[in-house]
Amino acid sequence: MKLAGKLIAALLVALALGVGSAWWIVDGGLGRLGFGAAAQNGAWHTNLAIGSPAADPYTRAAVARQGLLALSKSETVYFTAFSDDSGAALKTNCAYVISGGKLPARWWSITAYGADHYLIPNRADKYSAAMNTVTWTNERFLFTVGPEEESESAQGDFVPTGYEGGSGASFSLTLRLYNPEPEVAAAPQNLTLPTITKERCR
Amino acid sequence: MKSWPFWIAGTLVLAVLFHISAILAYPYAVTGVLHSRVVESEGANKMIAGPRASAEARGVVRPSPDLLYAICAYDLTSGPVKFSAPVPDTYWSLSMFAANTDNFFTVNDTQAARDEVEVILVTEDQIVPDPKGIPIVVAPSAKGAALVRTLISSEDKLPALQEAVKAARCATM
């Protein structure tokens, strides 16, 4: 019947539009539309509503996709970067220098994740740099994130991004501030966070 | 009279409804899948210490390789659940998550009064007759997850920290 066909078509179009737009927002993550308590600080973004009963439905959905079992802001504040300081997307074929000083938390770490939000396989089983593992010089630290082949010439400690040829894949970095000082949640956009500088690409 | 404007309007209204339903249902779906996966492999109300996160870890997104985790899929439908865990000499926390991803309770090593933390988790209408001074926490949903996090402060301490994480318990009272 013609009417039944039209109804089914309308239903399918509505389903594709509705669910598709929902997935676009959720997969794009906590920064895409700046919902709720989103904050930007250079290349880093965070959302202070993570884990909170005050979180809006979009924040909860994004947490379920990208940060399931994430702690609320009093315990840990998570900053994520999908791009470098110039705004270019982080790619596994490029080497980046991450540099900074003391951060207002009891402990911190910076971890690299693949586009699938899991740790990136590499020969050294090295996935992160942390307050207690980086090399400190005059209260400053510096390490390189990039293709394994760059590790020889890289500055400081090295976190590989599992480059497999071609133009590379996108990846992201998460900065975890455990037991953050009150200033972190009060004004996340004003903190001096580590810089992410692109060095070179393969 | 032309009917196509009504078809377009109807389709858009339906699309908005699908969008809202998908956004609202998604967190429950993801936590539900995690919960049933843990229950299927190890059972509910059991604390399971995981291996140190590596690229092989595909259970929960964005794990930290610098922490040791233990997870308990709690289920309060057959009564309150008691948690107990030794507190090591490094960053440590026990946190609880509701079915909608809300982190409704966390206690960390600096807040722990002793070198062991005990907590009883209940639903709104459950009563613990004799809690023996153990703090009671009300869960917003009968099912959810509890997570123990322990910072690997140094590689030398890893074996001892792994023992401490394995000693964490979650059990129906």
Automatic annotation (TrEMBL), chain A:
Cited Pfam families: DUF1214
Gene3D superfamilies to which the protein is assigned, alphabetical: Domain of unknown function DUF1214, C-terminal domain
UniProt feature coiled coil, ranges: none
The species this protein was found in: Tepidicaulis marinus
Family matches, as SUPFAM superfamilies: VPA0735-like (SSF160935)
Residue ranges of domain DUF1214 in the record: 75-181
InterPro entries documented for this protein: DUF1214, DUF1214_C_sf, UCP009471
Source domain of life: Bacteria
Protein's name in the database: Conserved protein
From TrEMBL, chain B:
Organism per entry: Tepidicaulis marinus
Domain called DUF1254: residue spans: 47-170
Top-rank taxon: Bacteria
Pfam families associated with the record: DUF1254
Full protein name: Integral membrane protein
Gene3D superfamilies named in the record: Domain of unknown function DUF1254
Lineage of source species: Bacteria, Pseudomonadati, Pseudomonadota, Alphaproteobacteria, Hyphomicrobiales
InterPro entries linked to this entry: DUF1254, DUF1254_sf
